[in-house]
Amino acid sequence: MRRQVTIASGLGGGGKVFWLTVAVLAVVVLAAASLAIGTRGVSFSDIAAAIAGHDETIGEAVVAMRIPRTALAVLAGAALGLSGALMQGITRNPLADPGIFGVNTGAALAVVIGVAWFNISSSNAYIWTAILGAGITAVFVYLVGSLGRGGATPLKLTLAGAATSIAFASLVMAIVLPRGDIAGGIRSWQIGGVGGATFSRILPVLPFLVVGLALAFISARKLNAMALGDELAAGLGENVALGRAVAAVSAVLLCGATTAVCGPIGFVGLVVPHACRLIVGVDHRWLLPFSALGGGILLLASDIIGRIAGRPGEVDVGIITALVGGPVFIWIVRRQQVREL
């Protein structure tokens, strides 16, 4: 008989709802700041007018250009935060992250190969190629990390992912360097950023993000069961292989689609789930929505900081998240000692 699985959590229901409300408000406030802050500052009246569809004044036109960028930062951050939480839940590895596991780099390599050798140019081709590259890389890293005694341990998976990421990054450079016709655009995209976003770039990726989001929340209860161990989860009536496969497909869709439109942005999937666990504990029914909101908050804040720090230009969000995520990665290694979650 199937039994309910109870997962320990950090706060009671009321406390979680309170922090969920705070997170939603933080996204709204940062989105407004993203519309207002840049090389040219704009007023609240310009923001309100631009949201209403007006673009008569310079300020309103500037806000209109920033709206797609802000929307992309929220969507990309949510997708990366979710994919990191899913990867950590699937592998029970505190260091799991699309960047550390090389999944982002695999998606980027696939796109570069597609551009350089097959002349892909459409948004759908970019997205499907990136998702294919992310999926192949995820399977490859898991297989390599499963070799030897003990199977897929957190340390082996992390080392396999790091080695794969370095190797694929070198391959990207080897492909791009002789191709001066694509080198400039690829190098800029490879840093990872949300600048130059338009709704025509965002709309093709939305179906993939929606499907990935739906699969993620479907996986929440199964991830809770798998956190108790595969044997116990199976004893409670869960199909462990199916649950892991659904969660993995969700993570690949979210990561691959985001990489296609933004480039490989690292550390969001590492930092955000750990921060959210301090608030809501390990119950994925709460952790996943908090990770989505937290990812949006981190990417919006990073984009705003990059605009302020780089004036009159800007610093891409991929650089800011790396500066934030590097120290957090070291802290997690020292604190967790690469134990399982």
TrEMBL record:
GO molecular function: transmembrane transporter activity
Location, primary (coarse class): membrane
Cellular localisation: Cell membrane
Keywords: Cell membrane, Membrane, Transmembrane, Transmembrane helix, Transport
Signal peptide annotation: none
Keyword Transport in record: yes
Transmembrane segment boundaries: 17-37, 70-87, 99-118, 125-145, 157-177, 198-218, 245-274, 286-309, 315-333
Protein name in UniProt: Putative siderophore transport system permease protein YfiZ
Organism: Martelella mediterranea DSM 17316
